Amino acid sequence: MAIVEMVMPKMGESIMEGTILSWLKKEGDKIEQDESVLEVATDKVDTEVPATHAGTLKTILAKEGEVVEVGKPIALIETSVRLEDEVNNDPPEPVSEPHSSEKEILQDVPAFTSLILGADSPKEKTTDERFYSPLVQSIAKAEKISPKELAQIPGTGKNGRVTKNDILAFVKERKTPVSEAGETYPPVEEAADEIIQMDRMRKMIAQRMLDSKNISAHVTSFVEADLTGIVLFRNKIKEEFRKKEGEGITFTPFFVMAIAKALRDFPMINISVEGDRIIKKKNINIGIAVALANGNLIVPVIKNADQYNLTGLSKKINDLAVRARENKLHADELKGGTYTLSNIGSFGNIMGTPIIVQPQVAILAVGTITKKPAVIETPTGDLIGIRHKMILSHSYDHRVVDGALGGMFVKKVADYLENFDMDTKI
Fold it and tell me: Is the pLDDT of residue 196 over 50?
């Protein structure tokens, strides 16, 4: 028998503490590894935390409502496995002080609240005695919900706790903005003009975009690629793929595969900046911008994207996209990206100048694929033919990526797309 400590996990670059919402298991309960044992709230997300070991939940060290720093013990687990025999459990990540450049720029959705560093204290009191999670308090502050109003919101959570959905429903129904003092603002009246108050997500996105433009010196290079081979290949295999895998195959996995290969060729694109230091990333983690029904974007991340084949990439991308639109992504799936792809072609756009997702240093936008007349070189002379063309827009941080490097990288991506192996197996 051995006693192991279960610690407060790290749930994001800028998250330094979490609040115990509720214990799903009690002392003496048998637990399996990766089984959810408690619910934790941060200023970004309310999430269930899995057990790090299998065994018995011997002692609960942190009570419900208690604020615990990342890395601090929250429970003791009695396990029959000797510690020296364990080879698959890595030690917890060391807690480091956040740097200003470590701000997580995550695309927001109702299920995940992306604040740029700094959380309101979970110990902040309201006019009633109910407990409010950091996430609920953050929404209340952003929407200027007074303590009096907060106390009147019906809670559907455990013991009447106000959940994220409860407060968002209140915000949606509230017609007149209210100050922190509980005073209503007079409505603005202008003939024929409609006044639309920014919702919380839009305000967060706006702030992140401004921060990125202020941090990075944006430069964009453009390359036109001939995707005729990929278009013909996809048309040939898409029905077979659907029958075999039970889902469709889009052009996105082809783009991700080409980007991953180019990042291996140009590792100084796969970096981040921390003050006057350049952090060269070991793993290639590609974020995919997914459009939601409400017009907002979320960027789930494909970890180690260079390790997948075409079929694996397609299935991974489809899974992330579906769960993103259903608000079923986990917090870990929204962090750790080293490069980002934005498919603006799905909206019929031919090109764009995307804004870098901090702390990354580059982002690629792919436009719509269009048929164009083009010169085709043959052994017997040049011909005019119809080809499928697409423009790639590569925005990069000119502080650390020179024009030559940024230009060569996007050209390399285009080369991989144009020279796609038509004999690829699915």
Answer: yes
Which residues are tagged catalytic? Answer: 398, 402
Amino acid at 207: Q
Helix (H) or strand (E) holding 60, with range, is strand 55-60
Place of tokens 């996990």: 9
CB of 4 closer than 8 Å to CB of 52: yes
In the chain, what are the helix, strand and coil shares in percent, each to the nearest 5?
Answer: 30, 25, 45
Structure tokens at 56: 């018995």
What is the third-level CATH fold of 217-418? Answer: Chloramphenicol Acetyltransferase (3.30.559)
Strand partners, 360: 272
Instruction: For residue 269, give the DSSP letter.
Output: G
Is residue 114 a contact partner of residue 104, using CB atoms and an 8 Å limit? yes
d(C-alpha 123, C-alpha 141), whole Å: 14
Residue pLDDT, tens place only, 34-93 = 788 998 887 666 778 888 889 999 999 999 989 998 889 999 999 876 544 444 444 444
Instruction: With 0.70 as the threshold, say if the pTM is over it.
Output: no
Identify the burial level of 12 via C-beta atoms within 10 angstroms of its C-beta, where 0-12 means exposed, 13-18 middle and 19 or more buried: buried
* Residue 367 near residue 350, CB atoms below 8 Å: yes
Find tokens 């991953």 and name the residue: 260
Per-domain residue ranges for the chain?
A: 2-85, 217-418
What's the CA gap between 338 and 283, in Å, rounded? 8
Query: What's the rounded Cα separation, in Å, for the pair 29 and 94?
Result: 29
User: Which residue has better confidence, 112 or 413?
Assistant: 413
Of all helices (H) and strands (E), which one includes residue 4? strand 2-7
Concatenated DSSP letters of 354-389? PPP-TTBSEEEEE---EEEEEEEEETTEEEEEEEEE
Closest CA to 290 of 335, 359, 346, 234: 346
**Residue bearing tokens 């060391």:** 94
- The CATH class given to the 2-85 domain equals mainly beta
What is the distance between the alpha carbons of residues 394 and 364, in angstroms, rounded to a whole number? 5
Residue 293 to residue 198: CA distance in whole angstroms: 17
Residue at 64: amino acid letter: E
